[in-house]
Write a structure and sequence with these properties.
By secondary structure, the protein is an alpha+beta fold. The chain is 19% helix and 38% strand.
């Protein structure tokens, strides 16, 4: 799309766009609906494409806008990838490309992980990506260069 920047992710080869009056919508294969195309959604769809096409995760195990309860408040995790048992495996938090990835963004995804207890966390604004592995036995985390491929 001409209004959205080139991202540091593989291009969307199969993006389905739909114009609804002045609103542009993009098809989300995980939710199986058209959603408003915002800068953050642009990042989400590219990142999910990366998860599916580069790392091999099936769209059927990826949830977008996953509801959770945190301190009696409703929240939504941007993307959750589940393992074969339906347990959260990866949580991803997105920001628009012009939004800087700060400590507050990491704090947000860590709060979500207090509920979901995933093994991996990812934060991306489409240009910069950060990946963490969580070690629950030592109650620690480490930054890693890449998320694991599906089945690894």
């Amino acid at each position: 799309m001409e209004n959205f920047p080139q991202l540091n992710l593989p291009p969307l080869s199969d993006a389905r766009l739909h114009r609804d009056g002045g609103l542009v919508r993009i098809y989300d294969p995980c939710r199986q609906i058209y959603v408003k195309l915002t800068p953050e959604e642009w990042v989400r769809q590219h990142f999910v494409g990366f998860l599916c096409n580069e790392l091999g995760y099936p769209a059927s195990i990826i949830g977008n806008e996953v509801s959770l309860r945190l301190n009696n408040l409703s929240r939504r995790a941007d993307t959750v990838v589940y393992d074969s048992h339906g347990t959260p495996f990866i949580i991803v938090e997105y920001k628009a490309p012009h939004v800087e990835i700060t400590q507050q963004v990491f704090d947000q995804i860590v709060r979500y992980n207090m509920v979901l207890k995933a093994q991996y966390l990812a934060v991306s604004n489409g240009l910069n990506h950060y990946f963490c592995a969580i070690d629950y036995s030592t109650r620690s985390y480490s930054f890693i260069p890449m998320l694991p491929a599906y089945g690894k």
